[in-house]
């Protein structure tokens, strides 16, 4: 029986070395790509975590401020209910407005500082 010509064909050593080198280079390039991709994902996760932590902090502060403002409003309403004359009502209202405007300014300043800090933390956080 005749021998199959394909069974006796040998791949030259140079061609095998070239193939091995190509595979090794492709593997190395892929590993570099995966390392860079993992670092990018870690950076995004880190920034996301910082933003989430900052958002949670700001939400808690906002809820605390809302509670303070409501308590001040109820205290004001109670004082108004006990007022003896229009002059006292006007004085109470002026005092309340002045104190609430200051509280709102302080709260806005604190929330603005928290927002700025959260943004800075997210921008500079490294994995």
Summarize the structure.
The chain has 127 residues and is an all-alpha fold.
Describe this structure in words.
The chain is an all-alpha fold. The chain has one domain (13-124). Helices cover 86% and strands 0% of the residues. It contains 2 helices and no strands. It has helices at residues 13-82, 86-124. The longest helix is centred in the middle third of the chain and has 70 residues, at 13-82. It is rod-shaped.
Count of helices?
2
Query: Please, what is the average pLDDT?
Result: 84
Low-confidence stretches: none
Net shape = rod-shaped
Quick one: how many beta strands? 0
What keyword list fits this structure?
single chain, 127 residues, mainly alpha, 2 helices, 0% strand, 86% helix
Question: Which helices and strands, and how do they pair?
Answer:
Elements (H helix, E strand, L loop, with lengths): L12 H70 L3 H39 L3
């Amino acid at each position: 029986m005749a021998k199959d010509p394909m069974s006796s064909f040998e791949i030259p050593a140079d061609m095998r070395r070239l193939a091995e080198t190509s595979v090794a280079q492709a593997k190395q390039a892929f590993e570099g790509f995966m390392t860079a991709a993992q670092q990018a994902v870690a950076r995004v996760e880190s920034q996301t975590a910082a933003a989430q932590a900052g958002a949670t902090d700001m939400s808690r502060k906002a809820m605390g401020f809302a509670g303070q403002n409501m308590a001040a409003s109820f205290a004001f309403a109670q004082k108004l209910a006990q007022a003896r004359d229009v002059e006292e009502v006007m004085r109470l209202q002026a005092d309340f407005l002045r104190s609430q405007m200051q509280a709102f300014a302080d709260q806005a300043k604190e929330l603005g500082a928290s927002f700025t800090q959260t943004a800075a933390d997210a921008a500079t956080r490294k994995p």
